[in-house]
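ok trying again, last paste got cut off:
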Amino acid sequence: MFSHMSEQWLLLLILLVSTAFVFTTNVILRKETGIPGPRGWPVIGHLPLLHRKKIVHQTLMNLAQKYGPLYELRLGMLKVLVISSPDLAKEILKIQDASFADRPFTIIGELIGYQRKDIIFSPTDDHWRFMRKLGSEFMSSKAIQKQQDLLIAGIDSTSITIEFGMAELMRNPDVKEKLVKELDELVGRERLVEESDLVNLKYLKMVIKETFRLHPPVPVLLPRKSMEPATVAGYKVPKNLQVLINSDAIQRSPESWDDPTSFRPERFANNPVDVKGQDFCLLPFGAGRRQCPGMGIGGLMVEITLATFLQILEFSLPAGLKPEDVDMTAEAAMTSALVSPLLVSVKPRLSPKLCSMRTSGRTFQRSYVLTWNIIQVETGFGDKI
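nice, full thing came through this time. structure:
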């Protein structure tokens, strides 16, 4: 009996000492770095703030409004630096890119990244450099033209962007009509839109940029890890600190965008901001040496798919559904899709030959593979899809 009670007291003592050690260590580290942040719980830190029922990027955005564009969280024993402004994103992704180029170990990287051997989740080592070089050749414009049909089924973020783009067009019918008018004037109704047409479809590009801005497929960029001690915004950042960049917060910041929560493609009419990682207020693909290697194929497929859908089909909301009724709620996940499938009615705009769901050209077949599974459709073809 006495021995059993002694073991219980010993376990309790170990727990108390461990808790005190973790708490004291984090207080000391917080004083050393001076980085602001909310007060966390002993041992578990700030994990309760990020439980699965909450949308993580929105929680991080709310914390940034209170603690500033740079703050620190502790997730158990893991310390994380959160970045929420274009200037600080540029500091991490460009100016000090070499210091923050590593990827931390994650379970998801082990599970879907071939034990962290793929180009996305691999640590920054010789293997990653080889994969990056190989990926650059494979994802070149010439290679993309040869491999489009093979690559397209694996691009999850592309279908998410198309889904949100279609949803925004249903919510903003004036934008949809303007885009359809551009397609009719520049491409016509006698043939399907081709990749060579995209360079002339300026309004289409504005619509897609605005979709990327309001609905980044990965709202919080994949984490980076400091490879050496660094200084960011005057704060000392130790080696091996994980860094999260909240691209959703950056792209909705009133400091960078007028009326940031409204869907206004015209904001890009005289604005040279692009999505290629050179403008740090718009980062759907990230930036720097760990930028998404599929940026080229992803952007191309969003453009050609959305253009093809709007050219050959007339989309409208089902009877009784108003534009403001379209649910834009996003999932609480790493890639943030719509919670509720988009419901639309369609009827053909072009000739039966071009509009045929079974015999259309390669362009629409690609669109069908990518996107038709994410939109519930009432058709005018006489068939249910």
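cool. The chain has 13 helices and nine strands. The chain has two domains: 29-121+223-245, 152-216+256-278+292-378.
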